[in-house]
Amino acid sequence: MTLRRPKTGLSRKVVAYYLCFCLTSVCWVTAALLMTSHALLCDRAANGCLSRLGRASSAVEIHWLRHQADGLDEVIDELQHDCRAAYWAVVGVDGKFVAHSCARLKGTAAGEPAGVRSRLDDVTSVRYVTDDGTTLREFRVALANGETPIGELRVGVDEPSFLATIESAAKYIPIAVLAPLCLAVGGGLVLMKLVRPVAAVEGRLRTIAKQQLGAEFHIEALRARDAVSLGWNRVVEQLQRSQRGATSDHVETVLAEAAQARGEAQFEQILQRLSDGIAVTDAEGRIAFANGAIAALLGAGDEVEALAGARLQERLLEVGECPEDSDLLSPAAAGRTATAELVQKGECERVLRVARLPLGSDAQQGHVWSLRDVTQQKLAEQTRDRFIDTATHELRTPLANIKAYAETLASAEYIDGELQKEFCNIINSETTRLARFIDDLLSISSMEVGALTIERQKVETERMFAEVLSKVEPLMQKKEIAFEVDLPPKMPELHLDKDKIIGVLVNVLGNAAKYTPSAGRVSLKVKIEDDRLRAAVTDTGVGIKEEELDKVFEKFFRSEDPRVQAEVGTGLGLSLAREVVRMHGGEITVESELNQGSTFTVSLPVA
Q: What is the chain's Cα-based Rg?
């Protein structure tokens, strides 16, 4: 039985569905355009006057303070000229219009229209419909002369009707409709051309489905026009070969080839999903295979094909710097395993560990390469080494002092009483230093595991700053530093962890005093602005290098400046301070210039 090409309407159905979808989309887009235009026109008219309402109320209050109601009509006329609105008016405390952009309404009762009310901060909005059917939005703000109320300032804004919106947008509607329609028609023609071969194949499959099970049939090939018809013809050819009979050996060969292809595909999928970069090069060092991870590490993004045929050593040297004595670059070492670390310079420095293994006993068969980003591991090692150095210094020095003075007290037959007190004070000071260092370590440890907590409570801000000043003023006096304090006359109560915030401020002020030479100047300025309390600590100390500004809040970081190294410190205070401030919803920033001084600013939310 021979199957002829059936008549099918698949392509026409698809195109019809496509055009219906496009027409529906155009209708929805047009409706959305009109609705959006209407909303924009309404909001533009309202926002234009609403943005001037604050300045307008201030102008009216100033005029009332100077001239009372005399000349207030001129102020209203000027507001009407600056912002075109339905009306501007001032209503007195007696409910009558003191001034109105419509002069005949002056002195009449203001009345209270019935409508929808809403309130935003100090502005009251009333949306209502007038007797002639016009929709108005009236915005009101209270007026006062000091503590004495004057009345309220009102501004009415016409809300455009939906018909007016349609009229304003009418000139754009033909373009908005015709352009998508033209594109839809063109897309329909293209879609019909694309769907036609699929429709032919679908018709043949439907005919086959209608045949009785086991019935013999013959399928004709299609005219080769595109990839779909070519694919169908290959299927027909293969089916005809199968029908002519295939030997068992041929079937086994096909199955073996399919199994091998499947195994190779799975192996390649595994390599592509590895997080380490993997590549295979030939004897000349050209890339024969590369996974996605190595493409990302070499800066090729997801374009694995771009690496095919490239020399891997050259791409590695483009990415980073390799030690000159490394076996990785030595031709003599091509036959043995080599490992090196490449340092990638740029905005974000990275360290890549590269390993090369030969395929077989020599390098003639090529190499297998692996790349791994070990930047975080290197940073962890640097932090560990820095911690060991800091801990060794911070523990050894006070312990040595305690041991020396304790041995002197124990071995000396006679020591003057004052000298004994001095020795005991030194031992107590060094013990306090050790305890503070251990407390900082415990706080940092709690911060890293997420166990650091704050206990908020209402705090009298003036008393909190008084405690801070009492702790740092002795240090300022000891170094003869001019300490300037500028606090606002009235500060709101804050909801925070008082002890931890005091610790932050004392740490910042203590650092300012520590790194400011004698006879220098340190200032503390506190401001309340934008619902935030900002405490700025400025000093005339040694300053910070520009390249070190991003590191000052890192754990255990201390500047390499000899003047900084000469002072006692652990590098933990600012790191802990930043975390405490962040937990309160604030931030701590630094601005500094070497040899000119620094400014640390602590910002905390008032609410």
A: 41
25 and 149 both lie in a single domain:
yes
Mean pLDDT along residues 521-545: 93
Do 222 and 265 have their domain in common? no
Average pLDDT for the chain: 76
Higher pLDDT, 533 or 41: 533
Strand 532-539 relative to strand 87-92, pairing: unpaired
* Token pair belonging to 389: 């150095």
CA 261 to chain centre: 45
**Bridge partner residues of 158 (DSSP):** 136
Looking at the fold, whether 137 and 223 belong to one and the same domain comes out as no
More confident residue, 213 or 333: 333
Question: Is there a domain that residue 25 lies in?
Answer: yes
Given this model, what pLDDT does residue 591 score? Answer: 94
Tell whether 109 is covered by a domain.
Answer: yes
Looking at per-residue pLDDT, the higher value among 448 and 97 belongs to 97
pLDDT at 224 over 60: yes
Kind and range of the H or E run holding 533: strand 532-539
Burial of 541 by CB count in 10 Å (0-12 exposed, 13-18 middle, 19+ buried)? buried
518-531 average pLDDT score: 92
**Average pLDDT for 2-22:** 55
One domain, residues 549 and 524: yes
Residue 136 belongs to domain spanning:
14-169
Residue holding tokens 């293969």? 238
Q: How far is the first Cα of the chain from the last one, in angstroms, to the nearest whole number?
A: 86
In a domain, 65, yes or no: yes
What number of other Cβ atoms are within 10 A of residue 125's Cβ?
17
DSSP per position, 283-324: TTSBEEEE-HHHHHHTT-TT-GGGGTT-BHHHHHHHHSB--T
Check if the beta carbon of residue 578 is closer than 8 Å to that of residue 588. Answer: yes
For the chain, the domain total comes to 6
DSSP string, 464-502: HHHHHHHHHHHHHHHTT-EEEEE--S----EEE-HHHHH
Q: Are strands 587-593 and 597-605 parallel, antiparallel or unpaired?
A: antiparallel
Contact 602, 505 (CB under 8 A): yes
pLDDT digits (tens, 9 = 90+) for 189-203: 666 666 677 777 777
Instruction: Say how far apart CA 181 and CA 19 lie, in whole Å.
Output: 9
Q: Could you report the per-residue pLDDT of 283-323, keeping only the tens digit for each?
A: 787 888 888 787 777 776 656 666 777 877 777 777 777 77
